[in-house]
Amino acid sequence: MTSTRTPDPTESGEGSLGRVIFIAAAAAMGGFLFGYDSAVISGAVTGIQHHFRVGNGETALVVSAALLGSAAGAAGAGWLADRLGRIRVMQMAAVLFAISGVGSMFPPNIFVLGVWRVVGGVAIGMASVIAPAYIAEVSPPAVRGRLASFQQAAIVLGIFISQLVNYGLNQGAGGSPNDPIAGIQAWQWMLGVETVPALIYFLMSFAIPESPRFLISAGRLDRARQVLADVEGPNSDVDARIAEIQLVMASEHKSRLSDLLGGRFGLQTIVWVGIGASAFQQFVGINVIFYYSSLLWQSVGINASNSLLISVSTSLVNIVGTVIAVALVDRVGRRPLALTGSAGMAVALSVAAWAFSYRKGTGTSATLPNLQAGVALAAAHVFVLCFAFSWGVVVWVLLGEMFPNRIRALALSVAASAQWIANWAITVSFPTMSDWNLSATYVIYACFALLSIPFVYFCIKETKGRTLESMG
Of 111, 268, 340, 394, which one's alpha carbon is 20 to 30 angstroms from that of 207? Predict the structure, then answer.
């Protein structure tokens, strides 16, 4: 009797493990661009405001415009991936990233900048769907959680590099994002630099294989056999793996929106759980730290250069937390990390809300007492750490694993679209809410962190160590 057990890749030699790590890292370059494009705007915000002479309202629309594009890109990525293949969608996203970077660097007005931000957002949405789906499909179960974590690791690295580049360009220009470097204002360079990693992403997509599941669905069994042998090692039972995948796919068809229907409130329960996880990830306000960092800290009396330096430090903390998650996600499981992170975020956000309640004044004249300023900075870093080692990684791992095979790509698209809509809601509302009451805004975020605890406990099932074919 032939065993269908998927071997630990370490049993098949270091070569296969090294190869699958390279494949996952290359696919995660989409996550790097996702993080870079998402966070780079934080350093450019004040430069954009001064250059186009607009206020917080117009700025919020430009910042959030990318997120509406992201929702559209995420919604269409699953459909495209099922019909054109995972690699082709990666290449499309890379081209859109590059086009957006060049366009955003030279906008004639604020409206055109918003349009280019939407184009970049479409690329972000596509990358947010295709990378976790692809990595989950090429990874052996024994290391799938760690390899799926590459997506979030790449996102936080992209965020960190964007903040580092922003700070370097700001300092190189003389301390202001509106000062020129080689005749072009620093904020324009900030937005244009992403063209470089976009080109790297495009080139790397040619060095990795198509997903074996897509190849099997397309009838390209010989190529699927080669890919499985490549990533699972020469000692793996490739024919058994193909038979297992074919067995699951035998009753499947190209997923349609109607496949997601059923259960309560129109959609299958598992789809609602994915949407809920995506929404909670954003409603804790994590992206306020990255999209509006300079505005946030300047609104409590910290100058522009120091606010950008704080952005760099929080991005470093984000990386540390993600490394912790990568080390633990396959050892302790997805649910324990999420529950621990939720509790930590609730406490940190509550402390930040207390500190911000001491803010005096508004706009550039705002101040915060030294004690409360220190507490707010510490709480913000603790919040980012707790998010990074839990929800930042766990949600992307779960979205790549939790859905049945027949609806995985499409359900992931719907969940990711919900994430971008939630992200947009937080992003577009923050400037107005913070002007109204910054402390109350953080109380709201703390409440969502608290509510995420029963959500995880009652709604999320552990997926550690399970094969994708067993998700039913």
Answer: 394
